[in-house]
Amino acid sequence: MPRIRIDQRSCNTCGVCVDICPVGALVLHGGSVRIEDESACLGGRASQSCSDCSVMDASCSGCVACVRNCPSGAITIQ
User: Fold this and answer.
1) Fewer Cβ atoms within 10 Å of its own Cβ: the N or the C terminal residue of the chain?
2) pLDDT digits (tens, 9 = 90+) for 3-62
């Protein structure tokens, strides 16, 4: 299962990653890009102001379309 990391400081919330993700793993929520499965993100439940969103996401297929198309380079998959 891939680990998605979104650097919220670098993200410009353009939504390209949300639109291009073939499995709908990412969403725009509250002015930032988040992992679709919020229950997987402890930081998301603790604070909406996290600077990093880094979680194991069961819906992510690891295709890296979001990484390749992010204009600000804010997303990595490990």
Assistant:
1) C
2) 788 888 899 999 999 999 988 888 888 888 887 765 555 444 444 445 555 555 667 888
Question: Which residue's structure tokens are 């102001």?
Answer: 49
> What's residue 48's pLDDT?
46
Number of domain units in the chain: 1
Q: What is the 3-state secondary structure (H, E, C) of 47-70?
A: CCCCCEEEEECCCCCCCCHHHHHC
Task: Tell me which residue of 14, 28, 16, 18 sits closest to 60, measured CA to CA.
Answer: 18
| DSSP reduced 3-state for 3 | strand
Q: What CATH number does the domain containing 48 carry?
A: 3.30.70.20
